[in-house]
Design brief:
Layout: H1 2-5, H2 9-12, H3 26-38, E1 43-45, E2 52-54, E3 60-72, E4 75-84, H4 86-126, H5 130-182, H6 189-220, E5 228-232, H7 233-243, E6 252-260, E7 263-267, H8 268-284, E8 289-298, E9 301-307, H9 340-350, E10 354-360, E11 364-372
Helix pairs in contact: 4-5, 5-6, 6-9, 7-8, 8-9
Length: 375
């Protein structure tokens, strides 16, 4: 009673039930009660109707009530089960509003389609190629629907990725800052330094995520174009491998092999981005073993191969590996945004090349990139 009507049990003891009935319904309720007393039976009240009770503060509360007569020690009694359905009513109102909005949207879209069809029918009478125009319009509509579905799926993947990838480093930063404050005295310098490094790593991870978003945005807006320069391939590859050596764990090693004409003309920054991403993935997704980097040039074609002995890619996920924000099913517990391979493919496309891979789950993955000399 306290939760629904705001009364304490002692306040209602000896009171008339009409105290809980809205003022304008008390007479009707008295008549219903007398009629029920003549022939008591189990029944529900309020189902499909607007039945309200009156709170202590005078507010009305929507209710559902079931009445069940019973005999106790020779006395006829009635048990009333009262349910506050305020939340149910609120949800029904929301559903009704959503339904009305959807119906309105359907009507609007139907009118738009009817208007489009009317225009197409008019063209049928005016021009011989109306059928062709109709087919083009239908194809365009299908493309728009496909694009909308793709954007919805992309949004879902982005929300899922962002909520996971941002939560982990932020939680690490917060917990480490709290611990650093506790380890303020000199004797805790080692522990303090450990947590400072964790903070630095988490900040770098967040920075890498944001840089991935920015790179993808610039690529899709066409703001990045190849800047061709001459590249000494061996020196270039050796520098990239050296920069990433700090990421290699004790059970891994990187083997670099270069052959053929080692001078190549392309965009050095894009080529570095391709190699860094492929090599970073190989390190990240293989706990041990050899990572092979093979670079060769024959005539005007550069072939870049990165092979690892890592977890591999499940066959059912391989068709989606270049999609934005996509993560393979066996990689969800490993840091990553699902942008790396998408960005790599966009760079490869800008450089007029091709990229492909072969992978077996639990055995490893080999990525192969082929690029043309741009001179």
């Amino acid at each position: 009673m306290n939760k629904i009507f705001g009364y304490q049990a002692r306040e209602l003891k000896g009171k008339e039930l009409s105290l809980l009935i809205p003022d304008d319904l008390r007479k009707k309720h008295e008549a219903y009660r007398k009629e029920f007393s003549k022939k008591p039976h189990s029944r529900g009240m309020g189902v499909g109707l607007s039945l309200n009770g009156k709170k202590k503060n005078g507010e009305l509360v929507p209710l559902e009530i079931s009445l069940n007569p019973f005999v106790f020690e020779g006395q006829k009694l009635v048990a009333a089960f009262v349910i506050d359905i305020s939340e149910k009513k609120r949800m029904e109102t929301e559903i009704k509003n959503h339904t009305q909005n959807l119906e309105k949207l359907v009507v609007e879209r139907t009118q738009e389609l009817e208007h489009l069809n009317l225009g197409l029918q008019t063209q049928v009478y005016e021009r011989r190629n109306a059928e062709q125009a109709l087919r083009k319009s239908q194809k365009k509509l299908e493309q728009m629907l496909d694009k909308e579905r793709e954007l919805n799926a992309l949004k879902s993947r982005f929300v899922s990725m962002a909520s996971h990838e941002f939560r982990t480093p932020l939680s690490t930063i917060l917990s480490s800052i709290s611990l650093v404050e506790r380890y303020a005295s000199p004797e805790y310098e080692v522990k303090r330094g450990k947590h400072v490094e964790r903070i630095k790593h988490s900040v770098k991870h967040l920075t890498d995520i944001l840089e991935g978003f920015l790179s993808l945005g610039r690529l899709e807006e066409g703001k990045i174009l190849p800047q061709v320069e001459e590249i000494q391939l061996y020196d270039f590859a050796e520098m990239v491998v050296g920069d990433l050596s700090s990421l290699v764990n004790p059970n891994q090693k990187i083997e670099l092999n270069c052959s053929g004409n080692l001078v190549f003309s392309s965009d050095k920054k894009m080529l570095r981005q391709i190699l860094v991403n492929l090599l970073s993935n190989a390190i990240k997704y293989s706990e041990k073993g050899t990572i092979e980097v093979n670079i060769s040039k024959r005539r005007d074609i550069l072939t870049l191969v990165v092979k690892d002995e890592g977890i591999g890619i499940p066959i059912e996920d391989q068709k989606n590996m270049f999609s934005r924000f996509f993560r393979a099913g066996n990689a969800t517990n490993i840091e990553g945004t699902g942008l790396g391979l998408n960005i790599i493919r966009k760079h490869v496309d800008l450089l007029g090349g091709k990229i492909g891979f072969e992978s077996e789950e639990g055995v490893g993955t080999t990525f192969t990139v082929s690029l043309k000399d741009l001179n």
